[in-house]
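=== RUN LOG ===
request id: a7f3
mode: sequence -> structure
chains: 1
length: 197
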Amino acid sequence: MTDPNFAIDTPRLRISHFQPDNDAHCDFLVELYNSPALGPSPITTREKARERLAGRVRDEHARNGYGAYLVSLKEQAQAGERETLTLTPVGTVSLMRGEEPNCYAVPDLGFALMPAYFRRGYATEAAKALMEYAARELGLGGRVLGLTDPANEAARGVFRKLGFEDRGERVLTVFGGVVGSVWTAPGMDGDLAIYGL
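=== RESULT ===
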């Protein structure tokens, strides 16, 4: 999961693995998890972020072949005759599936951005690229859930743009029994029970 050469590129973004030994990645995770849109979080220091990346995030990738990824904005600059690429971390995109028996049958697509990067289409662009990669390279065949807080209109908008189907609200037992808005990728079965919902 920490392959430094792994990248999914889109016209504006690069999706890569988090590197637990990279202080900038750890610091960004602290900033993101404690941003007004997500925080507060127990991940409040560089070391706590490093532990999360080296533990839970790495374990998820090892178990499933996918998990949470860093999303960075690509900025091209001309330095004399050389063109350089600068990567600015802006958020995360993920495919998550817990451990048996406490998980759904297919992964959950998630995304989070720093507030300064909202409403620019970055979440949709990153999520679409990750879904295409997962279908092509991981054999997921487009079978992905979108689970979100029913009040999160921004996330609902991303799922709409991705062509996901709104399946209403359900009790999400895997997430402690909270009520969540359930979305499914195009073409998934109408009987949500087969996915554990």
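=== NOTES ===
The chain has a mean pLDDT of 92.
The CA atoms of residues 146 and 168 lie 11 Å apart.
=== END ===
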